[in-house]
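Design job #97: recover the sequence.
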């Protein structure tokens, strides 16, 4: 069984460093540059990792996890989804604004706009984790915008899928996920694993112990 860590926008795989003490052998692929859709990303990731998988996906990485679970249900054993939601994108118009920011102001402009939405305390933001290739970021926003509704996939996994959100989550509220197994981490925003790594690592250990 291989744990696969799937990162969030606009960061890359380095965002999972606080979890390496829990899953030192985990695979953490970079998602950018794998195609134009979540399904293409899922196919690419599946082709790089053998055997049975446990997927841990943050935000954008959660959407890729759901696409991978739809594509490879016989291989995906369980999913821990952080700040992600199973439905289709509820705000496609917002994605157009994000793409416009990237094209006008570059990755740093996107970072400035997103930090207040990603962290309960902006002092926890680390710009060194930002992915800095504009075309890759634009393609990622488009893949998020165009993702399929995966609510059926989440339901099919039943007690093998768990959602984790921060108390100050901006994109996937506990109420919207109330039909699923959900854990709320206090004093955290969207990127729980970075803002409250000890609390998230405890959730991760517990989840993996039950898989």
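Job complete. Output follows.
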């Amino acid at each position: 069984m291989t744990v696969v860590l799937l990162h969030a926008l606009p960061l890359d795989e380095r965002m999972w460093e606080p979890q390496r003490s829990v899953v030192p052998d985990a695979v953490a692929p970079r998602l950018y540059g794998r195609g134009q859709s979540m399904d293409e990303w899922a196919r690419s990731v599946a082709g790089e990792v053998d055997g049975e998988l446990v997927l841990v996906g943050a935000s954008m990485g959660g959407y890729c996890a759901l696409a991978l679970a739809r594509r490879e249900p016989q291989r995906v054993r369980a999913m821990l989804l952080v700040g992600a939601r199973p439905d289709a994108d509820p705000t496609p118009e917002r994605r157009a604004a994000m793409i416009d920011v990237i094209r006008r102001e570059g990755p740093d402009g996107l970072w400035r706009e997103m930090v207040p939405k990603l962290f309960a305390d902006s002092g926890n933001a680390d710009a060194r984790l930002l992915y800095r290739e504009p075309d890759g970021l634009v393609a990622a926003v488009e893949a998020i915008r165009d993702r399929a509704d995966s609510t059926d996939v989440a339901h099919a996994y039943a007690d093998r899928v768990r959602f984790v959100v921060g108390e100050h989550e901006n994109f996937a509220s506990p109420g919207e996920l109330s039909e699923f197994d959900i854990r709320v981490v206090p004093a955290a925003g969207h990127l729980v694993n970075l803002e409250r790594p000890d609390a998230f690592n405890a959730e991760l250990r517990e989840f993996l112990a039950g898989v």
